[in-house]
Amino acid sequence: MSQRWLQAPEAVVMIRPHHFRPNAQTAKDNAFQSEAIDGEAQVSQRAYNEITDAVAVLRQHGVSVHLFEDLGSDTPDSVFPNNWFSTHGGGHVALHAMFAENRRKERRHDVIDFLKMRFRVQDVIDYSGLEQDGLFLEGTGAMTIDHLERVVYAARSNRTSEVLLERFCTHFNYEPMVFDAITIDGAPIYHTNVLMCIASDFALIGADMIPDRARRAEVVDRLATGGRDVIVLTPDQIGHFAGNAIELRGRGGRLLAMSERAVEALTQDQRDRIEKHVTLVPLRMPTIELAGGSVRCTIAGIHLSPRPEEVAA
């Protein structure tokens, strides 16, 4: 695998929800979450349709999307699989400790078994037992990972235990970079991946939401390592999920998946800088965004090598 492809997976896992709704258990510390106005059945159907359409668009661009159905009625956030598992180069998989009790039900053996069958998996490290000790680290929601420079960026919150982050980084050979980040109202940013996106040749970050100026400068400088173009987003753009994007690899090269709402929030200069490196692919997710997450949250990238039969296919 080319070193430049490490940041942009060509295969992903997505979950199509059948009982989606904004999760009451996560509302207290997720400032990006909104209440649904319409009935639960209508909201659930719209979320189902949004994932169906997003999968179709990504597949049209040549991304290999492995779609799983969630038929459980008590997993309202099942559409966000990137929080409960993550994959890493060298054949490593992590199962993560979740803060909200009903989100712990999202973990699925069939997804992990599928990864083992179709990709080279060397080991699975399970951190979920640490939930009983009050330690949480919600996958690539809590962590924004630079696979090229081997750095994990993490904003402090209820969802991110520094103790568990240190353990994860030791196991997976990453350098941790922890910082405080807050909303306009002073609340901690609940997940790092709403604040920032790291692509191969650029990064998006709501830098002004890191209140410590010295730490802000350190984070921005570290992101610029290797010549990345660091594109600073405003707090308003972060509120429109412009930081919640993911670089993927499709048939025509690299692309950036981002919600329509997020793309509309970008300035023309920001779009031009992004499109120097990738094809910008807007996905429509207004209903799913009621739950406080957007496109990045719905996509679990597969940073594993496919088995030979998958290559031949």
Could you explain the architecture of this structure?
- This protein has ten helices and 15 strands.
- By secondary structure, the chain is an alpha/beta fold.
- The chain has a single domain, classed as L-arginine/glycine Amidinotransferase, Chain A (5-stranded Propeller).
- The protein has a three-stranded mixed sheet.
- A hairpin with a 2-residue loop joins strand 12 and strand 13.
Secondary structure elements and pairings:
Blueprint (H helix, E strand, L loop, with lengths): L10 E7 L22 H21 L3 E7 L14 E4 L3 E4 L13 H10 L4 E4 L12 H4 E4 L4 E5 L6 H11 L2 E5 L16 E3 L3 E4 L7 H11 L5 E4 L2 H5 L6 E5 L2 E7 H6 L2 H8 L3 E5 L11 H4 L1 E2 L6 H5 L1
Parallel strand pairs: 1-2, 4-5, 7-8, 10-11, 13-14
Antiparallel strand pairs: 1-15, 3-4, 6-7, 9-10, 12-13
InterPro entries: Amdntrnsf_FN0238
Pfam family, one: DDAH_eukar
Protein name: Amidinotransferase
